[in-house]
Amino acid sequence: MQRCIDLAKLGLGNTAPNPMVGSVIVHNGRIIGEGYHTKHGEPHAEVNAINSVKDKYLLRKSTIYVNLEPCAHHGKTPPCANLISEIGIPEVVIGTVDTAAHVSGKGINILKEAGCRVVTGVLEKESRELNRRFFTFHEKQRPYIILKWAQTKDGFIDIERSTDTPIQPNWITNQYAKALVHKWRSEEQAILVGTNTALQDNPSLTTRNWKGKNPTRIVLDQHLTLPSHHNLFNYHAKTIVIAGTSLSDKKEKFANNIGIKFVDYKKGFYLQLFKILKELDIQSIIIEGGERVLNSFIKNNLWDEARIFHGNMEFGKGVKAPKMVLDNEILDQLGNSSLTFIRR
């Protein structure tokens, strides 16, 4: 099962909105086949593992391991539970049940009705941890939320700006931290900033320093004040603008890769935002600030982990970094910068 989990991790950033799944087939204590789900829309882990077995006759005397319950529905690929049953693999060992409504035990029922011996709950905690984005999305009806910011030694995330301050980010950390941030972006489905960050930093929010796909860019722009020439509106990635309900007559300012969604900022904002993200099948999102947006997510307990960079410089004054209780923190060193991971 640990091998299943290790294989599944190879799909990080490419399988969403599907989960990460690995599969191993064992005959007489020896691995004869294995595979993982490489990309959304392509064959699932069980299919790849079965196809890798040279002597298909052995499948009828083997055990197939998989870290998540085999699917039972027709999507872009046929149901894996049916395939396992039809081939006649007699034993299936599962890490954890799939709690998504369209599966949730249905795959296990298909296997049992076909006469398979099914074992569940093997490395269940580790299997759920692997697909924490997927489970959060289906069980909490919202994306897995990652807060990220960088702060100085004296606790600031930005300088005190004036009308003469250049429109650009003020780098607090080093090139290693920057590359790591771009790697993280390639692993998540979306990234979100507020109006002030978009105006003052003019960020691209892409994976320029890492090989990988760009996340969908989400920008909170209640009054549609952002200039159309800003980097968020280039063609390098898809952008979704979250605007106020009273501005629906201004949609024509956006290009083809820009979507616009309208919400009421004064009433139930997060419920509306999460409904939009659910409709877009966005299961994970990085919140990159600024201070007002980050503190709002913290205040409303709408986060799952925080990744905080600590630079080696001081601003003296400026925008204060968010404050949170540092429980379960893990500290890593990145040259002259450090990184704190916090999980709820």
Give a structural overview.
The structure is a single chain. The chain is α/β, with parallel strands linked by helices. The chain is built from 10 helices and 16 strands. Strands 11-10-9-8-12-6-13-16-15 form a 9-stranded mixed beta sheet, with helices on both faces. Strands 2-1-3-4-5 form a 5-stranded mixed beta sheet, sandwiched between helices. Helix 4 (106-113) links the parallel strand 4 and strand 5 (117-120). Helix 3 runs parallel beside helix 4. It starts with a helix and ends with a strand. The model has no long low-confidence stretch (mean pLDDT 92).
Give me the secondary-structure topology.
Blueprint (H helix, E strand, L loop, with lengths): L1 H7 L13 E6 L2 E7 L8 H8 L10 E6 L11 H8 L3 E6 L9 H8 L3 E4 L3 H7 L1 H9 L3 E8 L4 E3 L16 H13 L2 E5 H7 L14 E5 L18 E6 L13 E6 L5 H11 L4 E4 L3 H9 L5 E6 L8 E2 L8 E6 L2 E7 L1
Query: What percent of residues are in strands?
Result: 25-35%
The succession of helices and strands, N to C, reads HEEHEHEHEHHEEHEHEEEHEHEEEE
Structural class: alpha/beta
Helical content, roughly?
25-40%
Q: Choose one word for the global shape.
A: elongated
Oligomer, anyone? single chain
Specify Rg, calculated over alpha carbons: 23 Å
Question: How many strand segments?
Answer: 16
Average pLDDT over all residues = 92
What keywords describe this structure?
alpha/beta, single chain, 16 strands, five-stranded mixed β-sheet
